Structure formats: C-alpha cells, structure tokens
TrEMBL record:
GO terms for cellular component: cytoplasm; membrane. It catalyses: decanoyl-CoA + H2O = decanoate + CoA + H(+); (9Z)-octadecenoyl-CoA + H2O = (9Z)-octadecenoate + CoA + H(+); hexadecanoyl-CoA + H2O = hexadecanoate + CoA + H(+); dodecanoyl-CoA + H2O = dodecanoate + CoA + H(+). It comes from Peptoniphilus lacrimalis 315-B. This is Acyl-coenzyme A thioesterase THEM4. It is found in: Cell projection, Ruffle membrane; Cytoplasm; Membrane. One of its GO terms (biological process) is fatty acid metabolic process. Gene3D superfamilies: Hotdog Thioesterase (3.10.129.10). Keywords: Apoptosis, Cell membrane, Cell projection, Cytoplasm, Fatty acid metabolism, Hydrolase, Lipid metabolism, Membrane, Transit peptide. It comes from the Bacteria. Pfam families: 4HBT (PF03061).
Length: 161
C-alpha cells in the first residue's frame, strides 16, 4: 500500500514512552488497541470500537459507564494531539512523532444506553486550540443515535513526563 493510501492511527505516532495505554496503546499486549483517525478534511477525528460482552454495565447488553469514559478519554487525547499537529500545518506520516496530550478534565453526558457487541463510533472536534490546552467535544454514536456526549480539556505534556 502506498504511503498516501495508508491510514495512520494517531496512536501509532505516539513517542515510545506513550505507547502503553491499556485503552489505546499499540504496545500494550493486554490492551484494547483503540485507533483514532483524522477525517478526510482533518476537522474531526473518528474512532470505531466494538466492545466485548465482558464490559457490560448493570444491565446486560449495555456498556459499562467506566468503559464509555475510557473510550472518550483515549480518543479525546489522541484527537487533541492531532488538532495541535494540524494547527501547526503538519501532516501525519509514518515518521511522525506526535505531541502527546493528557486529560485535565472530562465531562460526560450519558444520554441513552450504549449497546454491546456492535460498532460504536466516536467523533471528536476541536472547540478551542490554545498554546498548551485544547478543548475537544465528542459524540458517541451507536445504532444511528447519539448515546453520549463529552467535553474534554486536554493539555500537552513533555516527553519526560
């Protein structure tokens, strides 16, 4: 596959120290390996996951709220890294080592139960891009409906964090 046709997940461009997150780290053997991708326009980031039945909440076939938060957390920080990268007019390539962001604040509005064992799509947009802080808004979709919304304050970190 040529360079221009290969989709690169944002998490694949994290520096070596930052690739071990349980939710999205490509080098965590026991992790979920979530992947976030910039949209064609670059204005949004998209992540699609299919939770396993082990992540059920109190009601069978509904996703556990902590997993919903984790999905927003991992996708939101990856999205913040992309929005910062794009704001500097940089491309995402296999050689990219993207600046890393962590969650400073995460607010979630749980609107409807999130179903298990089907695709869930999370779409992130940058509301505000500052020197070190990025505000990201996200929607979680499943079955053609918005199931949850989140707003994140993400902050850039140094590689020696």
């Amino acid at each position: 596959m040529s360079q221009e046709n290969k989709k690169i997940a944002i998490q694949e461009t994290y520096g070596p120290r930052f690739q071990y997150c349980w939710g999205c780290g490509p080098k965590n053997e026991d992790g979920l390996h979530m992947k976030s991708y910039p949209s064609e326009s670059g204005d949004e980031c998209i992540c699609t996951v299919r939770p396993d039945k082990m992540y059920t909440g109190g009601v069978p076939k509904n996703l556990f709220g902590g997993m919903i938060a984790m999905i927003f957390d991992c996708h939101g920080t990856a999205s913040a890294a992309w929005f910062n990268h794009r704001n500097k007019n940089l491309e995402l390539t296999e050689e990219t080592v993207i600046g890393r962001y962590i969650t400073a604040r995460l607010e979630i509005n749980f609107k409807k139960p999130v179903p298990m064992e089907e695709d869930i799509t999370v779409i992130a947009k940058a509301e505000e891009i500052g020197e070190r802080k990025i505000i990201v808004s996200m929607e979680m979709h499943a079955g053609g409906e918005i199931r949850a919304e989140a707003k994140m304050v993400a902050v850039g970190v140094k590689d020696n964090m």
